[in-house]
Every structure is written in structure tokens, then in C-alpha cells.
User: Fold these one by one.
Assistant:
Number 1:
Amino acid sequence: MKDRDTALAALATAAGIATAWEDAAGQPHEVSPDTLRALLAVLDLPAGSVAQIRESHDRLAREPVAPSQVPPLAAPVPDRCFSLADATGAGDPRHGDPRLWGIAAQLYGLRRHDGAGYAAGRHGATHGDLGCGDTTALASLARAAAAQGAACIGVSPVHALFDADPLSYSPYSPSSRLFLNTMIIDADAIAGADETARSLDRLGLGAEARRVAAEPLIDWPAVARVKQAVMHDLLARHGARIEADPDYRGVIAAGGDALADHARFEAIDAHMRATHGADGHTPHGWRGWPEAFRDPRSPAVAAFARDHQGAVARAQMLQWQASRGLGAAHQAARDAGMPVGLIADLAIGVDGSGAQAWSHQDQMLIGATIGAPPDLFNPLGQNWGLAAFSPRALAASGHAAYIQMLRAALRHAGGIRIDHILGLMRLWLIPEGAAPAEGAYLRYPLQDLLHATVLESRRHNAVVIGEDLGTVPAGFRDMLGAHGILGTRVLWFERDAGGDFLPPDRWERPVVATATTHDLPTTAGWWAGADIDWRERLGLFGPGETAESLRELRALDRSRLWSALGAAGSVDGIAPAPHASADPVIDGTLNFLGQTPTPLVLAPLEDLAGLGDQPNLPGTIAEHPNWRRRMPAPVPDLLETPAARRRLSMLRAGRRPEGDPS
């Protein structure tokens, strides 16, 4: 038994699985043999016996490594990503950084009208959205932000979700990172606003469209029913014109097997949910389909595609419409003067039941999910329910799947934010059915993936931002910086050893500065303790935490923040009470961030609007309205309120170079 365990550990190490890990308190933990065997099986390295371990070890040692699929650029090959200095024409970033600012926005939350409604012939071409944000609203936001000096708009992920399952709406649990969420489409772009209004009349959905558009929270099932019905109706009537469009035909040809597979998945998924799922929500996705449909190259799939050509073509048309809209939004940003434009957000994984896992089974780890080990905030660990790439398959293909994904994200963007960028080095992998604590770290080819990232950044003239928050191994951030990848720093966490907030001049340089993220409280919410209220309501406390202790600590932190803002000249006078208006805090925070030496500050749109509720509360699903909150006003009006203009003025003042009186 001891010899077998030793051989098992050696195989795991050779396959990149760490046999031990250290928790946030510095305590070491050994990974169990059962976990090692389960993860090795997921990696297609059976280890149930000594003979299997020996055979898997020999096979692993014989595997060739394919060359990278990234064609070399003109010599010399660059070793750093395209920078913000490159984007602004400021030259070498090591000889002085620009002082840019931008806005971070949840695309789905944007509004294009006030809910007054649709009716044929009314309002000309300015009807508005159908209950969720779309690319036309994004273009409007970009133009309005550019007019006030913004360099970029950081956008929440727009990866493809499940068209047939409106309950799966988290942007960080996509079906595929190669294609787009069709709910970002502006239906008016298909055939014009008046035709959209006529479609609503034909379908009898005018009143429902007005209702969902006016709601403060997105009712995703209702919005999907309205929007999909309208888009399907319009495509049925105008599909022949679209199919004759040379641009559409070019996109279909360029999309090749990948686009065809995605369209087939969407058609099959809708069919399976309609015929086998009473509520339209099939939890196991393609792995629960009849066996003949689980292989995208099977005769059954080919026959289905022939028999359902209309559904497959519709899925392709929707992807074309989404791509056109996103491209137009990015072009609007650039035409309005933004040196960067849109910054895309790349999720760390995909839903293992979705299109990318189905069509790229040889590239994905099926049978394990990504998560995090136990820590002080999550004593049981976390299971994010996402599938990851196989590092062995990546190496064997020259990292083609990763490169393909980068190119998809950068198709209509001037930058990319890589969520949980630590995943380029290692991921906490949990065997299916196991508890989060019963996982292990799996190593990824960091240097190769960084090299591919640099080359794609240069090829697309796109900046790269890494979400490097949390516990990060020593030297990792230096490695990101050496490759020209900007880190991320959040105000709430930038403290000294005594817990005081760092003054602006002590912030690191090669990072993006922000007050908060989608997973953290807004500035107004933090000041009022809204996040603590939610945690108390839902019982989301760590070991030793109570609502009282957290509120006492928050009171101390409010004092610390106000002192830091005052010392920076960003506020004066007495701090507002916790439940008074947080306007002075928001204004001061933006000015404070503007004073940091970082080349880019991202202002969350929620802060510019003065909102108290955060987009997502980790650890919750239905208990909190995650990914459902809409902005209180349409764009571009949202940035033209006195409060928003004042806040942006404060941010711009902080961004001015020292001695600049403008």
C-alpha cells in the first residue's frame, strides 16, 4: 500500500497535481489518495492499481508537446503586452505612464428608455430596450463617457449563455467563451425600430414589453420570453435578406466548425429541454442527452442539423447580430475618441454542461469543477461549478484552445480583463461529487500561456488586465508586470500593516485602481454597511464573525477611510453618518483614486449613479438579486446628472499630472 501511494503521488506530481497545499493560516494539508486518483482519472491517467499507475506514468513521459499555434510576429518577438502608453501614443510605459480613467459597467443593467413603451409608429427609431441592456445602450454609454474624457469602458462578460435556459444568467457561468450572449442584441438592429414595434403588436407582447422594461430588477425568464419571441419573429421574416448579406456569409465561412457546432448545440439544447424538461431547465446539459447526441461529430447530430436547419440558421444569425452590435459599440467608443474603447471580461471557466464543453470535449476536464480551498472567509471552501481546460490537452495542441478563446474575446475590444488570472498558473480542482475541501491544485503552463497572451495582445493592439486579488503566490505579480499585464487593486484592500488605508502615492504603479468590484459592496453600500445587512439576513458569516463585530469594525474603517480621504485633500469637514447621503464619500473616493500613480482608474457605474446595492453577492444564488439590477436612468442621461458630472469632475481632477492647472 505504501509503495502504491508513493507511486500515486509521483504520478500526480508528474501530471501537475500538487499533493499538498497550505491554507490561509499557513497550515499544511495533504491531498488524499482518493482525490489524487479521481483527478488523475479526469486527466485521462488511470491510477486504480500499480499497473495502471505505471502505464499512465509511461504514457505521460512519452507525450510530445506541440509547438504554439500563435504565428510569430515580425522579429523581434515582443516580451510585453500592448500597453496603455502604446494606446495613447505616449511611448515606452517604463518611461512614464499615462493617467487615464474609464468606467466599469454591467452591460445587462443599462437602460435605453424609461419604460414608456413600444407601439407601432411611435417614437420613430428610439423605442428602447426590451428589458435588459444591449449593445446600442453600450454604444450610447461609450459616447457619453468619451465626451467627458473616459479612455475605456470595462464591460461585464458577454459570453454565450444558454438561450433555452433563461435561469442560467450569470455572466461568469457561460455556456461558451467563444461566442456571445444573444440577450445583448438590440432587436431594432435586425430590421429597424418600427418593425420591432410591429412584431410586438403581432405577438401581443406590447404590454409585457413595457412591464419588463420598467422593472428595477431584470425578470430574466420574462425578458427572455419577450425578447426571444420578437427576435425569432423578425429573423423568420427577414432571414432571407440576412442570408444574402455578404458580411453574414463571410462570418459564417470564417466561423467554420466552431460556429456550426455552437449553433447545433443551441438547437439541440432547446429541443431537449422542450421535450424532456417540463420546466425547460435541464441541470445536466449535454451529458444528460441521449448517447447519440453527446458527440458533436455523430451521425445523429448531423441528421438533427439537417432536419432542423431553421433553428440552426437562426442561432447563427443571432450570433452575427450580437457580433455586429458589439463591434459597433467598440467602434463608437473609438470614434468618440477613446484610445482603448471596450475592455472585454474573460471568465475563468465555463459551465461543463454547455456548448464549449460539448464541442471541445478533448480540451476540457470533464468530471471535475473549479473552486477554491477553505479559507478564513469560506471555511468550507468554494465550488464554482465551472469546467476548465486540460493542461495536457493545451500542451498537446500548442495551446490552440486558449488562443482561440483570447481571439474571440478581443474581436471587438481594445483590452481584456482576465478573471482570476492566477488560473494561468494553477486552479483548485474538485472531483465531481466531492466537497470543495477535497480538491487539489492543478498546475498550468504559465509561461506558455503568458507568451500566448502577450502575442495576442500585440496582434490585436489590446491592453491586458489581470484580476489578481486574494492570496497570490510570491513572485506571481512580478511575473505579470514583467509581461506588461496590469494587476488590479481595490480600495477596500489597500491597507498598511495597521489597517489604515494607503495614501495615493503608496499605491503600486503597474495596476488598475478601483474602489470596488461586482462581487463587493458599492461605495455607498460599504459606507452604510449594506453588505453586512445582507450577510446578517442570510447568515453568511465566517468563523467568529457576528453582525455586531462586523459593524464595529466597519465603523472603525469608515473613520480610517475618511481620514485617508481628508489627508489626500479629497474631502473636508465631518464624515457623514452611516445612513446619511454617501455623496461626499463617493466624490472623495473617486478623487482619491485619481491621485494614485496607476495608469488607469476604473469608476464603477454603480458609484457614478450613487447606488447602494452591489451586482453580485458571492455565496448566494436566488437569495440575493445577483446579475439583475438595472441602472436607475437611461443612457446617456445617466452620466449627465449633476451628481455624475460632479463625480467625474472629481476623478478628472485627481488624474491631472502634478502641476497641471487645466
Number 2:
Amino acid sequence: MQDEMAQLLTDLRGAKDFEAAAAATLRRLQAVAQEAVASSRYAARGRVLRGIVHLRPGEAYRSLAALEVGAAEITDASVGTPFFTSATAWRAVVEHRCAVSIDVNVGTVQPHAPNAPVTGDPSLAGFNSHESRQRFLGRHATHVCVLPLRTPGGDIEGMISLEADCLAAMGQDFVWLEAGDRLQLLADVAAPYLARLPQRPVARPEVDEFLPVVGRSMAELLPILRVFALQDETILISGATGAGKSRLARWCHERSNRRGKPFETLDLVTVPEDLQMAELFGWKKGAFTGAVRDAPGSVARAEGGTLFIDEIDKLSLKAQAGLLHLLESRSYRPLGEGTGERQADVRFIIGTNADLHAEVRAGRFREDLYYRVNVLPVRMPALQERQDEIPLWAQYMVNRRHRERSPDGHARLMKEAERLLVGSPWPGNLRQLDNIVRRAYTLAMVEHADASGELVLHEKHVARALDYEQAPGARPLPEALRAAAQAFVAEARRRNAPLDLDLADAFRGMVLGLAIRQVGRDEGFKLLGRESLVKNRNHHKALKRELEKVDSLYKALGEEGSPFSDLLSEVEAV
């Protein structure tokens, strides 16, 4: 065992990315599992098939890597290969916080812990869904060992599943319990590397009408989403309001086997609780006061296609029970319909900006429904975490609005206007950015009555549009500072090398630069309590020092220049 660990550690230390670490880990685990099969009574009838690393910190998937036994390289998720994710396996690992063995044919889940009960029965109640079991069997996997990826702090940030084919062991112990300690020890050694190493750079993805802008963070997420899109299991998209969850849901639909079929959206924020069941399932004439005719619900309208249910945390407990029945049985009954149920051929995508697990603990969301919708979870990054996308989205929004007004005209943002947008906080995400761009576009149009030529949005137009955001009730300064700190830490975690804390000093320069942009150089210093520097004529030197810090931050992030590079050039020329 020491030799196995030493070899794995050597391979992991040499790994430059998640994919290399996953390949090294899976090869070692497969070797141990194959050795256990070869020395068991199933030697002639059992075989290890594959291993899959599921990295899902904070519940949401970040990376997937599969290695077939005998393969030289891991399977590339970006080509749409049939990766398999299992809500049954994940639920068991999280609940028991240890490795588990799954007998697919019998439908039992056995934790690798002393005196832990075996769950499931011949009716396959141990499985999260019928589809989950069928997908295992479709891959010829009769027995699965699931190992938690535990960080040194004890958190579970993913799992490794090993799949084997051995019909002879149906209803009996396979080799997983015997080899479990060795397998788990190797998984524990690999966990910190798998959780912290960056993914391999992905090729710049193609953009389209459904996702016209893709930055670095989204480019890393899209390979997983392509895989998820091709499955019929439920996708759960979490993320802040306005971040683009509905657009991402439509993108998944267009890359699924259901493209060309209906795509229906049900935003529960707009539906009163007493009408949620009716909106979901439809109703018959006379089912309730005001039901003057039959009406199909969202499920019926989405038949054959995809139903995106947004803000699922707003669903009442009564409606949750109805949705749970629909997800379990794929059948439903419209309100007021007497007997019998209708079958639903619908793929579900769920959106939320809430922590559903916390909602479960608070008793506001059913635990069984949570595990039904948390099958393929992904997290949509907030716009503040996708700053490289801000200028691209702004230009896209300007072009779209200008084409509506003047199909032959052209519109663009000046670099200074883009920099001002990048340097602004976006608590409202893409929705807020669209409002700002709409406002700035209108201000530019006021000065440019002839829309037949090129329309240019300058920094002053964006600045004035942003000023309207500073209304009563705007985000308090401590909250905004906390958001900036979160963005700094998020960037540090995404990088391959540490992000020097001293670069956070750039905030002073940004504040000073924005003040000068808005009220002028001397007045900007006075506004921020540095009038003495102006009186002593030392403010040029102070401004240069602060703006150099901003420039250093942008250089460290690989950006071409800071939003205040022109101010810095002016000061340096003095």
C-alpha cells in the first residue's frame, strides 16, 4: 500500500492540471480494484469498467473526468461523450460521509461504515430515480463503488465512482468492501490535488444567439453543460438573479435531443401561491372560480420539449408535492380532471438564487424534492466574477438596440466607457447592465439625432447612466466593499499562482480616479479629504502613486490597461 501511495503522490505532484491529476488517480484506483477482482471468487466473471471523478464543490459541478479501463487518456467532456452522474450516489455519500457500494440490479446502497444499514429493496427504492438505475445498466455497470473526495477540513467537494460488471455478484457482496479502505485512502490522498488544480485551458467556444458572449469562467463551465444538455435528467442552475440562468437554460435546450421542440418558462416569482398548481398542470373548466374554459399548464405546453422552472424556492409546499409526483412518475392530473393521469414527456431545468439545502434545513423545501432536482447541478457565476465579459455584453446590448432602431446603422462604445463599466459593481448582474446600457444609449441618442450614421457611446454617457443607480436604497458602502473583497478572493482562487494582497491597495487609486473623473482633479482630492495635498502642490505625486497601484493590479490580471491609464499618462508627463 505504501508503494501505491508513493507512486500516486509522485504522479500528483507532477500534474499541472485537474485532468492530469484525475487520470493518475483513476489509473491507481482501477489497478487496486482490478487486483481485488482478480483475487476474488469473481475473477472469471467480473471486470472493472471505468472510473469517473465528479468535482462539485458547494454542490455544483465544476469538473468531470472519466477514464475507461485500458484507455491512455481521460475522456474529453467537451465532445459530448455519455458521462454519467448519479444523484443516488451523491446523496448516499453526503448522507453517510463515507464510501458506499451500490448493487444496481437489486437497488441497494451499502455504506462502508460499521453497523450502517443497507438501504433500498427489490422495488429499487434505494435509487433516486428509475432513470438513474437504467443509465447504470445501459453502461453495463452492475456494481458501483463511490468514494467521497474529502478535503483536509472534512468537507466533501466531490466523489469518485468506480463501475464494474459482474452479474454473478447480484445480491451479494462484491469486492468493494474488501478493497474499500485502500481505495478510500488513495482518494483522500488525491482529493486536495483534484480540488485545487486548475482545469486545462479550453478552446474558445463558439458563440450563438442563445449565448452570444462567453468569457473565461463560462468557457470552463460549458464542456460540462454540453454533457448535461444531452441527458434527460434534471439540470439545476443556481446563481444570482439576473445572471442569465434563463438564457443558459435555453442554451441547454438547443443542444439537447429536444431542440426544435417547445421551450417553456415558468417564473414562480410572478405566480401567486394559490395558482402555482394551476400554472404547472393546467385546469378544466369550472375547476375553480374564474376557470371559464379549459387551459393547458406549463407541463402540457412543454410536451416533448423542455420546461424551465425558475425561482423554484418560491414553490409552495403543496405545489412541491405535486412537482415531486410529476418527477417521480412522469404523470400529472390537471385541476378539475376527474380520473386518470396524463403522461408527461418533458425535460426539466430548474433555476434558483437560493441555497436550497438551507431551505431544506429550514423546513421550507422538501428534502425528497431537493434530491430530485439536484441531479445535474451547476452554478452560474455572477457578472462580477465574469468581468472579462462586461465589455462584450455591453457592446452586444448596444448593437442589438441600435439594430432595432436603425438596421443599417452602427453603434459602439469607447474604450473609456467600457473601462468605466468594468470598474463598476453589478449586484443586478446582466439585467442591471442592460438597464445601464439602455440608459446610456438613450443619452447618446439625444446628442446624435441622426441615427443613420455611427452612434458612439462615450464615457460621459455611461457615467451619467451609472449616476442614476446611486438612488436612495442603493447598496450600502460596507456591503459594496464586501462584494469587492469577495471578487478579489474569487480571482485569487481561480489563478494558478497567489494574488498578492498588496494589489488590493489599488482600491484607493480607483476611488481617487473615479472622483477626478466626476468632479475634476483638484476637487476630487478635496472631496476625499486630501485638500492639504492640493495646497502643498503634492497631489500630482500622490495621484501618480495611487494610479500606479491600479495599473499594477490590471497587469497582474493580464489586462491590457487600467481604466485610468490616460490619467496616469497625463501625470507622468507633468
